[in-house]
Amino acid sequence: MTKEKVKKPGDPGFSLTELLIAVTVMAALSAVAVPMLSSSMRSMQLAADAQNISSTLSSARLSAKSLMTPYRISIDLNDNKWQLEKFNRVSGNFELQNDVYQLSSGITNSGITFLLNSGTHPGIFPSQSSNTITFNSRGIPVDINNTPTTNNIIYISKSGTDYAISVSLTGKVQVWKENGGHWDIQ
Known about the structure:
The chain is an alpha+beta fold. The protein has one domain (16-185): 3-Layer(bab) Sandwich (minor pseudopilin epsh fold), CATH 3.55.40. It is built from one helix and eleven strands. Strands 1, 2, 3, 4, 6 and 7 form a six-stranded antiparallel β-sheet that branches. The chain has a five-stranded antiparallel β-sheet with strand order 5-8-9-10-11. The radius of gyration is 26 Å and the shape is elongated.
């Protein structure tokens, strides 16, 4: 006949009740933490997209200055894509330099999009997003007539959180975030 060991108080180990309580507490914490983490990830994606666009604009400006050739960023506001292009003096057209970039969609339904217009806008910049931002061979932002311009801004948004990426007349690229109706430089 086998002898069964009876658990005595003080013996190591957990009872079934203790394990169920621990699992219930972990499930409750997970139910709260997962939505908060998901929201934080989407906010970080929005900020990362703003920085990616800013980096592409800075690259275009530096490339234009160093190679003495116009560069531009073309933005497809409806399809949430942008691309870096270099002017080909032989063909007289801008040509794609790298891959076509797209706004983040890593988290299901991230909701990050380009805005055609912003209800408010930072500083002297317009409320309408630019379709293209062109830098001449000296790295100065210019319009279609090759006239220096300050009308260069791109707005992106996710659920009411807005970012703007602007290019000043000197070519300085800045990232802005809307905060209660006013814009702060990031």
